[in-house]
Write a structure and sequence with these properties.
Layout lengths: L2 H11 L1 H4 L2 H9 L6 H20 L2 H5 L9
Helix pairs in contact: 1-4
């Protein structure tokens, strides 16, 4: 899998989390959650995308166990 595909998959996987932004803004406006949560959301998105990107690294999945006839 090439780098561009991995980036697209990593960014697409953060989309459901990004959908929570309007809900969190509404909850912060009524005082149900602290405004600091809005600062934490972009950090969480970046960390989530980075973890997904590195987990899709093709060299890790192609590494075998060292035994013959295994992948």
């Amino acid at each position: 899998m090439n780098r561009r595909t991995r980036i697209c998959i990593a960014l697409a996987s953060t989309f459901p989390t990004l959908l929570t932004l309007p809900v969190i803004c509404l909850l912060a406006a009524v005082g149900a959650v602290p405004w600091d949560l809005l600062v934490a959301l972009p950090v969480a998105l970046v960390v989530h995308a980075a973890i997904t990107f590195f987990r899709l690294n093709p060299t890790l999945s192609e590494a075998g166990s060292g035994r013959p006839n295994t992948m």
